[in-house]
């Protein structure tokens, strides 16, 4: 007899990309699509996901760690990630719940590593410690030119009547964000077994369908009902 859909092997999916490409929106949409096929899933984010990790997130994004340099920030992110993995990601996967994360380890490689200049050996060591073997099954990299992304963010802020303010990373110069985009694309090219790059320069509904098709293609059990 076939297992119930929510007893399929749990999957770990991460979303990556620069600022303003729509990761949070698409994470929500993917969770809704998974729920429609009776897959239990939890939404999380990095840095954050647990109380301790959220405290570290606040410290970094407020700019309080900026003077310490990219190396120190990489260590802080690793500390937050270790708590996130051990207290949220690993337990959920173990009980059969899918985990969908807005950012994960690739962001550290892009922000502090390729863009911030932190030595790759340090990044590797911190990643080995923090992940404890929990590498994503699929990473969706949302790609968009930074100028277009920032214009979209500004337009939405105006529509919502909000002041356009940036956090520690959103305030970086445009050239920095272009290098960040290149960093994510480099990571994807070097990890084709795990990463899929999708253009975020399209309607939300269209991108949602493309993401769902990608997830179904990677995990055929979602189409067949056969447990993994």
From TrEMBL:
Catalytic activity reported: dTMP + ATP = dTDP + ADP
Native species: Devosia riboflavina
GO annotation terms (biological process): dTDP biosynthetic process; dTTP biosynthetic process; dUDP biosynthetic process
Chain ranges passing through the membrane: none
Record-linked InterPro entries: P-loop_NTPase, Thymidylate_kin-like_dom, Thymidylate_kin_CS, Thymidylate_kinase
Known function: Phosphorylation of dTMP to form dTDP in both de novo and salvage pathways of dTTP synthesis.
GO molecular function: ATP binding; dTMP kinase activity
Keywords: ATP-binding, Kinase, Nucleotide biosynthesis, Nucleotide-binding, Transferase
Residues involved in ATP binding: 17-24
NCBIfam families linked to this entry: DTMP_kinase
Superkingdom as given in the UniProt entry: Bacteria
EC number: 2.7.4.9
SUPFAM superfamilies membership: P-loop containing nucleoside triphosphate hydrolases
Membership in a protein family: Belongs to the thymidylate kinase family.
Domain Thymidylate kinase-like: 15-211
GO cellular component: cytosol
Annotated PROSITE patterns: THYMIDYLATE_KINASE
UniProt name for this protein: Thymidylate kinase
Gene expressing this chain: tmk
